[in-house]
Design brief:
One of its GO terms (biological process) is recombinational repair. Helices cover about 40% and strands about 15% of the residues. The protein is α/β, with parallel strands linked by helices and about 750 residues long. The strands form six sheets. It has a six-stranded parallel β-sheet with strand order 6-5-9-10-4-11. The protein has a five-stranded parallel β-sheet with strand order 14-18-17-15-16, sandwiched between helices. Helix 18 packs parallel to helix 19 (about 415-425). The longest helix is centred in the middle third of the chain and has 23 residues, at about 250-270. The structure holds adenosine-5'-triphosphate.
């Protein structure tokens, strides 16, 4: 039997009524133990045009609902099998639209967007096998990049089962040198943005250059006496030698030295009678004056040195980043300089910057491949994308992902920006220009969508759908072929101290029959252990699948930074049989349209709702939400906000962070607490006064009284009396970030550790 990868089989599998080729009939058989259990005809082509007789049919022509019905019926058995943690090949049941992508022969970047469980990973791996089988690439030409080690474990057996061996699969973060430290979120955000590439380039350009040149000039020229001859090169010539042409910095450095020595040698020959002195060039090159000027205008640089200076020298960073990063972003980058270079705590983002710098300095880079397959590509940061592009200068990639599942440091609005980074890279000019300039109009990429979901039961998808719409309103939500049944989604709301126990016992209930169970928990929850299930964080379950999933405290996952909502969507869509939610704090509003209604019987959402003038109130709300959004763009603000959120989680509370008006609302032992956070400059009284006003507006917008209200500052208030005034005049407590901890009157209550009163 011909292999599925052969052109003939692919042609047979992908034929349609409009383009049948030689295919007359495509019949799918479902067999069991050598017996055909059922079959259906996907494609029936009449023998000659105009011939009637047999019904003419093609899957491509079927109404989608009928098609899904058919698929469901036909794939059921395959879909029903228990998941043992390892992905299988899908050769027997692969669908036409999947195979079309597996065997896509177009050059450039092929982007495959598809919702959870639509078979992107499966398609990517089958494509690797198809590319090799058809000799389009060889083993060593290709690299498959996956999100994490667990994912690689999950897919490990697919390629060997397809008869494909020797292709390298690598976990994304392993592409770069091992990190030695972790940056705070604001620094990570800046370092991973595309603007950082400009700052790095400028960091190199700031070194030496024409400013340094003037120190070596006298009367508008670089001149010295050499072996009795007066040698001089005018400033204008030197500046020409310095002009940055294409090529890496060190090539520029070399070019400057060569041109200078050429000019000096020519000057020597003009001035000296010893015209044919063949050794003179070498002697000029070694002359201390020449070495000094070269080292000064084009100093020797290492990537580590440039990055270290940028991250630890505020003035140097300002020169490189003016007009690119605002003051807050520059402040977010700065850190203390370690005594020795070897002690610098390079983070993952730093390692990627270092790779970019090495490329700028030396032109060299990481190993190159002729084709990359990148899974979960929506989570790449712009700096990671540039780095991957350097690994694949041919611009031939298979990019798999789902924008709605984004949870990385960067959110791509659509696939074009990322694809163009891959499609347009041809080495050097990436560093020379801004991305948008380089790649506008490049047509080296194609976007295709997979729209049928094979993993997640329909009921679970319906449950997750409102969240998907919020996360990526423009991407198509998949239609699930898998029927779930009434038990597919179970939501258990329990007392705070019963959450962990309930999750564990539910996992035990679900396990058995060889079915896999995962308990997915928010960051920082370490107390849950289970013999019956794998316990993992939301970011660890990306790309994986289990028969049953027990998801703990979705609100806590949703509020994780960065991209908590995306993480939650990923976690919700890992199961093939059932999803159980175990929670105490209210579900995120994206998941539960009744959240607001539920809150109505609680103190915050009662008084006055009916008596408001609705249109005026809406206008007020819109205005408030807009200014809150603006505030949240400030890194300092967000860093303070999430430090507090994390402290509240540590106190086993469930802060709500996704209100469009309130920075944080949290039920604690002292009652309902409302927090208004201040960003940069927020420690001065005028800003604090504004925050008091805002807090009152937020309280009004949220519909009622809070038991405790806090204004939260990034550091100690400038005016020592501010806290007293707030407490006495407004009944509001002031707390602030104090190095690594928190201060202020009533801090125990603010952090959810005490039940006393401050007001
Ligand atoms: N044609 C098919 N026939 C049978 N099973 C399929 C088919 N296509 C995909 N599947 C199965 O559906 C499940 C999901 O596939 P896969 O992991 O490739 O989806 P994905 O789009 O990468 O998902 P996610 O984005 O959620 O990680 C796998 O178990 C896979 O084997």
């Amino acid at each position: 039997m011909a292999s599925w990868q052969t052109p003939r089989v692919v042609q047979w599998m992908t034929a349609t009524l409009n383009e049948p080729g030689e295919v007359r009939l495509r019949r799918r058989l479902a067999c069991q133990g050598g017996i055909v259990r059922k079959y259906y005809d996907e494609l029936v082509v009449p023998r000659s045009s105009g011939e009637d007789g047999q019904a003419v049919a093609s899957v491509a022509d079927e109404p989608p609902a009928r098609r899904i019905e058919r698929l469901r019926d036909f794939l059921l058995e395959d879909l029903e099998r228990a998941r043992d943690g390892r992905m299988r090949d899908i050769v027997e049941t692969i669908q036409r639209e999947q195979l079309m992508l597996v065997a896509d022969r177009r050059n450039g970047v092929l982007v495959i967007q598809g919702g959870p469980g639509t078979g992107k990973t499966a398609v990517g791996l089958h494509r690797v096998s198809w590319l090799l089988y058809n000799n389009i690439f060889r083993r060593g030409d290709m690299l498959v990049v996956g999100p994490h080690r667990g994912f690689l474990e999950h897919v490990r057996e697919v390629l060997p089962r397809l008869g494909t061996h020797g292709v390298t699969l690598v976990e994304r973060d392993r592409l770069w040198d091992e990190p030695r430290g972790v940056d705070p979120l604001p620094a990570r955000l800046v370092k991973s943005s595309a603007r950082m590439a400009t700052v790095l380039r400028r960091g190199i350009e700031q070194q030496g250059g024409t400013r340094a040149l003037t120190r070596h000039l006298k009367d508008g020229a670089f001149a010295f006496v050499f072996e009795g001859a007066f040698l001089s090169v005018p400033q204008a010539d030197l500046e020409k030698f310095l002009a940055w042409e294409s090529g890496a910095y060190n090539a520029q450095r070399l070019a400057f030295g060569t041109r200078l020595v050429d000019a000096l040698t020519a000057a020597y020959h003009d001035a000296s009678s010893r015209r044919h002195d063949s050794g003179v060039r070498k002697r000029i090159e070694r002359h201390p004056q020449v070495k000094r000027i070269v080292n000064s205008v084009r100093p020797r640089l290492s990537a580590e040195q440039v990055l270290r200076d940028l991250l630890t020298d505020a003035e140097f960073l300002r020169r490189a980043a003016t007009g690119v990063l605002d003051d807050g972003e520059q402040a977010a980058l700065l850190r203390e300089r370690r005594e020795r270079m070897t002690e610098e705590p390079w983070s993952l983002e730093d390692q990627i910057c270092l790779e970019e710098l090495r490329h700028l300095l030396n032109g060299d880079g990481p190993p190159r491949y002729r084709h990359l397959v990148v899974d979960e590509a929506q989570d790449l940061t712009p700096m990671q994308a540039r780095s991957l592009a350097r690994r694949c200068p041919s611009g031939s990639l298979t990019v798999l992902g789902d924008l709605a599942q984004s949870s990385g440091l960067h959110r791509w609005n659509d696939w074009s920006e990322l694809s163009q980074v891959f499609a347009g890279v041809d080495g050097w000019h990436l560093e020379q220009l801004e991305l948008s300039q380089v790649f506008a109009g490049v047509d080296g990429w194609h976007l295709e969508q997979l729209t049928i979901g094979y993993r997640v039961p329909r009921e679970v998808m319906d449950f997750a759908a409102p969240l998907a719409r919020v996360l990526a309103p423009n991407t198509r939500f998949p239609e699930s072929v898998r029927p779930g049944g009434e038990e597919a989604v179970t939501v258990l709301r329990v007392a705070a101290d019963e959450v962990d126990g309930t999750a564990v016992s539910r996992a035990a209930e679900l396990s058995g029959d060889g079915r896999s169970v995962a308990v997915i928990v928010p960051d920082g929850v370490t107390g849950i252990g289970s013999d019956d299930a794998r316990v993992l964080r939301a970011d660890e379950c990306r790309g994986l699948e289990f028969d049953h999933v027990v998801l703990v405290e979705p609100a806590a996952i949703a509020s994780q930074e960065p991209g908590g909502l995306g993480e939650l969507y990923v976690a919700l869509t890992r199961c093939t049989q059932s999803l159980t939610i175990v929670h105490h704090s209210p579900l995120p509003r994206e998941l539960d349209p009744t959240t607001e209604a539920t809150l109505e019987d609680e103190p915050m959402t009662t008084a006055g709702a009916e008596s408001r003038d609705e249109s005026g109130f809406q206008a007020f709300l819109d205005d408030l939400e807009r200014s809150v959004r603006e505030e949240r763009e400030c890194h300092v603000h967000e860093s303070v906000r999430y430090s507090l959120v994390s402290a509240l989680f540590a106190a086993r509370l469930a802060p709500v962070t996704d209100s469009p008006t309130a920075d944080i609302v949290c039920e604690g032992p002292a009652g309902r607490m409302l927090y208004e956070v201040l960003g940069e400059g927020g420690h001065a009284y005028p800003a604090i006064r504004q925050a008091v006003l805002r807090l009152m507006e937020v309280q009004y917008a949220e519909g009622g009284q809070a038991d405790h209200r806090f204004v939260v500052l990034p550091r100690e208030p400038e005016q020592p009396w501010a806290a007293d005034v707030l407490r006495d005049a407004f009944g509001i407590a002031l707390i602030w970030r104090d190095g690594g901890s928190w201060s202020g009157e009533g801090i125990g209550i603010a952090l959810g550790r005490e039940a006393g009163g401050v007001e």
